[in-house]
Records
---
Amino acid sequence: MAHHNHFLIAIKSMITALFFTLHCIEFSGAVGRFSAGGQKGQWQLLLNNTGVVAMHMALTHDNTVVIFDQTEAGPSGYRLRRRHNGNRCTESRDNLADSSCYAHSVEYDISSNKVRPLRLYTDTWCSSGSFLSNGTLLQTGGYGSGTRRIRYFKPCGDGQCDWRQSERSLADNRWYASNQLLPEHDRIIVVGGRRTFTYEFVPKMSSNEGSHELSFLHQTYDRSEGGNNLYPFLHLSSDGNLFIFANRDSILFNYRSNIVIKTFPRIPGDGSRNYPGSGSSVILPLDHTNNFQRVEVMVCGGAASGAHRAAGQNRFLKGLRSCGRMVITGNRHKWNMENMPGSRLLSDMLILPTGNVLIINGAKRGSGGWNNARNASLQPYLYNPNHKLGKRFSVLKSTKIARMYPSSAILLPDGRVLVGGGNPHESYTFSNVAYPTELRLQAFAPHYMRRQYHTYRPINLTINYGHGDLSGVRYGGDFNVSFWLGRKPSKVVEFSAYAPPFTTHSISMNQRLLKLRCKRLVRAESGLVHAVLEAPPSPNVAPSGYYMLTVVNGGIPSISQWVRFLHQ
Ligand SMILES: *[C@@H]1O[C@H](CO)[C@@H](O)[C@H](O)[C@H]1NC(C)=O
Ligand SMILES: *[C@@H]1O[C@H](CO)[C@@H](O)[C@H](O)[C@H]1NC(C)=O
Ligand SMILES: *[C@@H]1O[C@H](CO)[C@@H](O)[C@H](O)[C@H]1NC(C)=O
Ligand SMILES: *[C@@H]1O[C@H](CO)[C@@H](O)[C@H](O)[C@H]1NC(C)=O
Ligand SMILES: *[C@@H]1O[C@H](CO)[C@@H](O)[C@H](O)[C@H]1NC(C)=O
């Protein structure tokens, strides 16, 4: 044993002698020249049948994906042998048509590329969700029997876990509501819903915890167009207030005291950005270089005004082409507008580890809702927020599979984007329709996944919290990472932490990406790199929970590892 220790110490001091201590970003040899042009990514077909429509998707920190649809669509593509109550499902005509003899939720395991059925007890149609700080998915609302339900999915890694329904209920019906995890420990705000002009908090502290009126939801409601303010976009600003965008308007809201702090200018142009208008939105990457104090939101696409009614008459109006960006911190607020390469709605906006934004799925014409859209948008767009105006968008490789209402997309730890869903019909319909029920699961692999970049790709990323504390890192605290790089790091090595969203209906609830401060970075001749990173300063910047940590070397990301930011 002693002999072994001596040996280790000797090796360690040798390695130390070989270290060149360097600043985190002062390296030579950029990969930058590869990141532009001609590289449009690749599509992969993962499964022909997920069993259920991916109306909702969320990535767990066990590297599985919870997928679910509504429960009342009748037969899905995943037949069960038994119902929840244990009763057998037979081949009888009644049983074959019985919704309870089919799965409406599955868990997809990324590494084995397989799904297993999960059991939902009440209808989750057009519901919402968010992860708690311990990695459990809290899911709220839905339709009918499910509209006031609170459900939990606690990931377990052994393929045994399932949905659990809480004894406590929501105060109001939540169908098409949005959720955001808040800085307060394990508090989630649930905002809006169809004919619900209030917000409330979950988990419930007591059984009679109620809801609060929000007149902004009345003001933005467009009755003749199906609302156009459903699934409002929520973004937590780093000052601890909540940005709420609905239809064309937005506010900064202090949810603790029910006070509207700011009313922002209306986004220019006609049309609507929220369901059934169905544009999408992100909070652009938050950056340590300004201490996370500059917060900018972006809203893209949506439906033309009158699109919902027109779709009911079989006229499919061209969707919106514009995007707006606005800084919501400070005191000067203006929407800076720019155009996407084409008109687009029903799309998902995802922040990639590089800090670029991917716009994927959806259609060019129509509105959200059943059978309301036409002309699938088959080409994803990539948006680089740091390029010059006019040079920010690029058009990526086309898929052959239309992803109409309601589809979804999420970022995976390996850098790919999982794409599923699409079923603009009341039940699963596979023939004689323009857009059949889509049960195929795909992955889009952005250009940075290409083999030619493997020599630039940081590998074997490991996180070390130190102090024998294996559960996470506290706000403002340091933590260490190590990884291996075959060649010298590029000019820019960045470290991003990404909150995995709950995605449905073109909204990615809770999604945010932080560019973390690197305090020290050393690379041994062996290629092993050690870096000391600083956790975000507060839960306003990053609510407590699991984040995907990625090292990005000159635009080429590593596989992400889960890092947990903890309350004091
Ligand atoms: C999906 O089905 C097609 C056609 O039957 C088949 O060629 C393909 O290999 C299948 N792909 C997967 C991933 O199962
Ligand atoms: C996380 O917290 C929730 C709510 O308190 C609880 O139901 C769940 O079991 C916890 N999950 C884990 C993994 O501890
Ligand atoms: C939409 O689809 C229709 C028929 O499928 C086609 O004629 C039309 O050119 C398409 N429009 C656009 C904008 O792609
Ligand atoms: C990376 O990790 C794998 C699996 O643990 C190991 O086999 C491999 O040698 C490691 N590579 C380097 C360069 O450290
Ligand atoms: C992180 O690495 C530094 C040296 O680079 C070391 O001094 C420190 O103890 C490490 N901290 C942890 C938490 O491992």
---
Amino acid sequence: MSRFWSRVVHDLVPYVPGEQPKIANLIKLNTNENPYGPSPQVLAAIRAATDETLKLYPDPNASALKQTIAAYHGLQMEQVFVGNGSDEVLAFVFQGLLKHDAPLLFPDITYSFYPVYCGLYGVSYRTVPLRDDFTIAVDDYAQPAGAIIFPNPNAPTGHLLPLAQIEALLQQHPDAVVVIDEAYVDFGGIDEIPSAIALVNRYPNLLVVQTLSKARSLAGLRVGFAIGHKDLIEGLERVKNSFNSYPLDRLAIAGAVAAFEDRAYFETTRNKVIASREQLVKDMQALGFEIIPSAANFIFARHPQHDAATLATKLRQRSILVRHFKLPRIEQYLRITVGTDGQCGALVDALKEFFV
Ligand SMILES: *Cc1c(COP(=O)(O)O)cnc(C)c1O
């Protein structure tokens, strides 16, 4: 606390990310990173960009990356916004698109950064409780809304709302921006990814936010993007260009472009994570855990006989990190990132030992 702080700083309640401890041989299943490294083509592109040209500012518009993402999704470049991680993209979204007279709506159990951005930008909000089975019910959003945001699949539950329901929500609120935060959507289906990007050309009030941190194994590079009607994107550009001309550096732009170009690597790793998730769910159910059906690279699990906080502490003593949120309704749940089969096996073996 300092007398030099502005009033808004006194009142902030900052987001607390999952720990990144420096422990050897850690099995890190607490922050939903990808257990596989980035595509070798990404690393090669970053190396190739590491040269003399770093003396120059990057392209403030990151056009090469916007072009790549637009082409990947069959859209126009004017429908794409890019930022320094989707957390930064979301910050611009909250400031530029979600602050209205009526409150912003989001679920009571969701990404805990949302209320933090509301505090930073003075956005009034109302939470809408998930149903008892932890699903989002679109009917519950039939109330005055300045805007709506939630992740799909939701975090930390992993539950996926079908696209038809999102479409119903968009029709229910034609005059409100609906933001779908798709950090985990690439783990949502093998044959088809259930992304709301398929709807952006039909709904000018839809904004889809994605990240390269999860399915593309680039949490350390900090690249996220938003896709929507060009007027929404222009609003975000106005905020960005009033804040930082160059949120993406040269290496990030080069690496992100290469990540989209290596589609085969993306497909292989996401399919491996999906397969490991299905196995982990089976193994944990066999131990008596109840698990919310997950379309993400994590599972949300509780055990009827074992306290979640105690389990998290005991796992930590074995150098296995999982995430426990000491929050109403979910304090008996653990959020466990899907690791390699070896890491998931070590987790299951440790739990088996506790339970004998
Ligand atoms: C991980 C995550 C993000 C942030 O991703 P970055 O691009 O790494 O900033 C955004 N939303 C949700 C729901 C997430 O889980």
